[in-house]
Design a protein that fits this description.
about 750 residues, alpha+beta, OB fold (Dihydrolipoamide Acetyltransferase, E2P), 5 domains, 5-stranded antiparallel beta sheet, about 30% helix, about 25% strand
Length: about 750
C-alpha cells in the first residue's frame, strides 16, 4: 500500500538522498533522478512507490513544502565562460549557476556564500547570486569560516544580546551576594587544560567523619559550578542566543562560545583570586566511594589557584618536588582530592561502569593555523580526578531532581539495540573468547569483556566493537538511565558556560530550593520542525488556567522540544569540529604525498580498510582494489576482509605499511596504497586468529600475487577518486554507492 510522508531531505555526496521523516518512521530513499528537483535540507512530501529487496522504502517527491533559505558556501569557478559555485557541502549534489552580474566583487577560486534565486528543476540547475565573499581557500582560519556556515553554527551574537551584555557589571556587587553562603575562605581550586580560557568548576576536599565515629572515615567533596543562571534569565536576548546555540563549539585555535566573552571568560569564569557566584554540590563520600549525603546551595566563592592537569599530576607524583613546593599550602587538599577519587573509582567498579581507554589526539597549529604536528592527548590522574568529581555532582543533581519529581533534561545513554546486540554477540562467539553479552545486557558485562581482553593484540578491535554497539547519548526529559556509566539517573550540571542543558538544570535546582516550580516556556507546535526554535513564552496566568492534563502535555512537549534541540545542536557542533579537523589533516598530508608510513587498521568495510598512521595519527582509506590481485570478501561477523584464494586477512588491529597516494581537500579524504611486505599480512592473519600458518606454497603464491599488484599500482593512478571507491566526506562517512547511509 502506497503512503506519503513529510520530512527533511538529506542529500548524499553520490547524488541520491534520503527523506528524514517527521513522524519518526524509517528514512525513505530518493534516487538521483528525484534529487534533481530538490536540494539538501529542503522540506518535502514524498510518496512511497516501492520497497527494495531488503524491504527499505523508496519514494518520489510529490510536493516541495519549504526551501532552505540559508546561504550555501562554495568555491566560485569560471569554466567555459560560465560562472558557477561548487558547494563545499557535497550533499547539495548540484553546482549553482551564477549570472555575470551576480558574482559581486568575487574572483574565480574564492570561497563565497550564495543565495538561491531560482531552485533546481528536472531540466535546469539552480541559479543564485553571491552575498558574501569569505576569501581565498588558503587564508588562515578559512576552514572554520566555511564550517560555521556549512553547518549553520550561529557565530555572531545579535545586537540585543550585545546591548544586554554591555549593561552587566564588571564585578560582583553587594546585591549579587545576598542569600548566598560565603565560601570565599574555602581553598577551592580550578584544574583544567593548559589552553583553557573559561573555568566552569572548582573543587575542594577534606577528610570527614560519617556516622558515629571519632576518626575520619570519608571525605567532604565540594564541587562549585559557575552560576550562569544568575545572569542569563528566561525570555531575555542573552537566553535566546544561548538557546539557539545550545553549546559552545571547539575548533583548533578558536572557540565559538555559547555566551559572550564578558560572561564566559569574565563574570561567570571562576578565575583565581576573584569573587564569583556559584552553585555548589556539597557531598559526603565514604571509603567505598558511595555518596552518603549531599546538598545544593548558591554560594560566593574565590578560587585560590588555577591548576593545570599536568601540574596536579606532577604534584601527586611527588608531594615534595619543586611543583609541590610552589603550592605547598594547597598540596594537602590535592592529596585529599586524590584520595576521594580513588574511593569513587571503587564505586565505579562496583557499579560495573564501562571504561574504555582510547587514544585522543590534539592538533598543534602554527601562527597561520596550519598543523605543525598531531600528538596523543594523554590522560593522567588529574584528568580522571576531575572527571570523577564532576560525575558525582551530576548524578547527585539527577537524583535531587528526580526525588522532587520536577521535570528536567536527563543525559540518557541506552544500551545496544537488538540489531546491534545480535551483531556483537555473533562477533564475540566467532572470536571464541568464552565471554559473551546476554540478551538483557548490563554495563558490567561490557566492562568484563573489556578487562578480559585489554592485553590481547586485537584488543582495539574488540573494544571498538563494544563501543559501536552502544547508542548515542541524548538529552531527554524521559529518564531511562545512563548505560555506559551505570547510573539509574544522570544529568549535566557542571558546564553551564558551554552547555544549555546544564543551565536548565541549574534553574530547576534553584526552583526546588526555593520551593517553587520552574516552567519551561512552551513551544508553539509539537512537530520536529520547531525543534530549532525558541519556545514561545506562556504567561503564568494562562498556565494556571489550563486543565491539569493539558498542562502536563504542554510541559512535556516543551521539555521534549528542548531535549531534541540540544541533542541536535550537540551533534552539529561535533560534525563541524570533525570537518575542520579533517580539512586541516588533509592540508597536512598534502605535504607527505608519496611517503610511506606504518599504520594500524582502524576499521574494515566491504569497500576497503581504514588505516591510522602510527606517527601522524591520521586516518585514510586503502580501497579494496589496492589489496592485491584477488577477490576479497568482507566477513561482517569477524569484521575483516579475507582474500578468497590466499586467505590473507585484514581486520581491525592488523599492522600494515602504506603509501600516501592521494589527498582530496574538497572531499576531506585521504587515500593510501598498501606497500606489500611479501607474506607478512597472510602470516599475521593466520597467527592472529590462532589457526595454522599457511603452507609454504600458498605463502609463495600470495607473494607473487602481491608483487604483481604492487607493479600495477605503480603504473596506475590512485583509485580513491573513482566512483564507488572512497567517496568523499570524512573517512568514517564513506559508504558504497547504494549502501546504508
Amino acid at each position: 500500500m502506497l503512503s506519503e510522508a513529510e520530512g527533511i531531505v538529506q542529500g548524499h555526496r553520490d547524488g541520491h538522498g534520503f527523506l528524514q521523516r517527521e513522524d519518526g518512521g524509517p528514512d525513505i530513499y530518493l534516487s538521483p533522478q528525484e534529487m534533481r528537483t530538490v536540494l539538501h535540507r529542503d522540506r518535502v512530501r514524498v510518496r512511497v512507490v516501492r520497497l527494495d529487496r531488503k524491504g527499505r522504502p523508496e519514494g518520489r517527491v510529490s510536493e516541495i513544502l519549504e526551501r532552505k533559505k540559508l546561504p550555501i558556501i562554495g568555491r566560485l569557478l569560471h569554466e567555459s565562460g560560465i560562472w558557477l559555485v561548487a558547494p563545499e557541502d557535497k550533499r547539495f549534489g548540484q553546482d549553482i549557476m551564477i549570472p555575470k552580474n551576480g558574482i559581486a566583487s568575487a574572483t574565480a577560486g574564492q570561497v563565497v556564500a550564495v543565495e538561491l534565486t531560482e531552485p533546481p528543476s528536472l531540466h535546469s540547475q539552480p541559479l543564485g547570486r553571491v552575498t558574501e565573499v569569505l576569501g581565498e581557500i588558503d587564508d588562515p582560519g578559512m576552514e572554520i569560516e566555511i564550517a560555521v556556515r556549512k553547518y549553520e553554527v550561529p557565530h555572531r551574537f545579535n545586537a540585543e544580546t550585545m546591548a544586554q551584555t554591555a549593561k552587566l557589571p564588571d564585578k560582583l556587587r553587594a546585591i549579587d551576594k545576598k542569600h548566598r553562603i560565603d565560601l570565599t575562605d574555602v581553598p577551592l581550586v580550578t584544574i583544567d587544560g593548559e589552553d583553557a580560557r573559561d573555568f566552569d568548576d572548582a573543587v575542594y576536599c577534606e577528610p570527614a567523619t560519617i556516622g558515629r565515629v571519632k576518626q575520619p572515615n570519608g571525605w567532604r567533596l565540594l564541587v562549585a559550578i559557575a552560576d550562569v543562571s544568575h545572569y542569563v534569565k528566561p525570555g531575555e536576548a542573552l537566553d535566546d542566543d544561548a538557546y539557539e546555540r545550545a553549546t559552545s563549539v571547539y575548533f583548533p585555535r578558536r572557540v565559538i562560545p555559547m555566551l559572550p566573552e564578558k560572561l564566559s571568560n569574565g563574570l561567570c569564569s571562576l578565575n583565581p583570586n576573584e569573587d564569583r557566584l556559584a552553585m555548589v554540590c556539597d557531598m559526603l563520600v565514604d571509603a567505598a566511594g558511595e555518596i552518603r549525603a549531599y546538598q545544593f546551595y548558591p554560594a560566593v566563592i574565590n578560587s585560590h589557584a588555577r591548576f593545570t592537569y599536568n601540574e596536579v599530576a606532577a604534584i601527586l607524583a611527588n608531594t615534595r618536588g619543586p611543583e609541590a613546593h610552589k603550592r605547598s599550602a594547597l598540596v594537602p587538599h590535592l592529596v585529599h582530592l586524590h584520595e576521594v577519587y580513588r574511593a569513587l573509582l571503587k564505586g565505579r567498579a562496583v557499579r560495573g561502569a564501562v571504561d574504555f581507554e582510547t587514544t585522543e589526539t590534539q592538533i598543534v597549529c602554527d601562527e597561520n593555523g596550519r598543523i605543525e604536528k598531531i600528538v596523543p592527548r594523554t590522560r593522567n590522574d588529574a584528568h580522571r580526578l576531575i572527571e570523577e568529581a564532576m560525575l558525582a555532582a551530576n548524578v547527585c543533581s539527577a537524583e535531587f531532581i528526580e526525588t522532587h519529581k520536577h521535570a528536567s533534561l536527563y543525559r540518557v545513554h541506552e544500551g545496544p539495540t537488538p540489531e546491534k546486540l545480535t551483531v556483537l554477540q555473533g562477533y564475540l562467539r566467532a572470536l571464541g573468547l568464552g565471554l559473551s553479552i546476554s540478551d538483557d545486557p548490563k554495563p558490567a558485562e561490557f566492562q568484563a569483556v573489556a578487562q578480559a581482553t585489554k592485553d590481547r593484540p586485537d584488543a582495539m578491535q574488540i573494544h571498538s566493537m563494544l563501543l559501536r554497539s552502544m547508542q548515542q547519548a541524548i538529552y531527554t526529559p524521559a529518564n531511562s538511565g545512563h548505560f555506559g556509566l551505570a547510573y539509574p539517573a544522570y544529568t549535566h550540571f557542571t558546564s553551564p558556560i558551554r552547555r544549555y542543558p546544564d543551565l536548565l538544570v541549574h534553574r530547576v535546582i534553584k526552583a526546588i530550593l526555593s520551593e517553587r516550580k520552574y516552567h519551561l516556556q512552551v513551544t508553539e507546535l509539537a512537530t520536529s520542525a520547531v525543534h530549532t526554535r525558541k519556545p514561545r513564552p506562556v504567561s503564568a496566568a494562562a498556565a494556571a488556567k489550563a486543565p491539569p492534563r493539558l498542562k502536563m502535555n504542554a510541559e512535556s512537549q516543551a521539555w521534549d522540544a528542548a531535549g531534541n534541540h540540544c541533542s541536535a545542536n550537540e551533534r552539529r557542533a561535533d560534525e563541524a569540529s570533525r570537518d575542520v579537523e579533517a580539512w586541516l589533516k588533509c592540508k597536512f598530508m598534502r605535504e607527505h604525498l608519496g611517503e610511506e608510513f606504518g599504520g594500524t587498521v582502524s576499521s574494515a568495510t566491504s569497500f576497503g580498510l581504514f588505516v591510522t598512521l602510527d606517527e601522524l595519527y591520521v586516518e585514510g582509506l586503502v580501497h579494496i582494489t589496492e589489496l592485491g590481485g584477488e577477490y576479497f570478501r568482507f566477513d561482517e561477523v569477524r569484521q575483516e576482509l579475507r582474500g578468497e584464494r590466499t586467505g590473507v586477512r585484514y581486520a581491525v588491529g592488523s599492522r600494515v605499511r602504506v603509501q600516501v597516494s592521494r589527498v582530496d581537500l574538497d572531499g576531506r579524504r585521504i587515500d593510501f596504497r598498501l606497500v606489500h611486505e611479501p607474506g607478512a599480512a597472510l602470516r599475521a592473519g593466520r597467527e592472529k586468529t590462532g589457526g595454522p600458518v599457511e603452507e609454504l606454497a600458498d605463502v609463495k603464491e600470495a607473494d607473487r600475487v602481491q608483487k604483481r599488484a604492487a607493479k600495477k599500482a605503480v603504473a596506475k593512478p590512485a583509485v580513491g577518486g573513482r566512483r564507488g571507491g572512497s567517496e568523499g566526506g570524512s573517512a568514517r562517512e564513506r559508504k558504497p554507492k547504494r549502501a546504508k547511509r
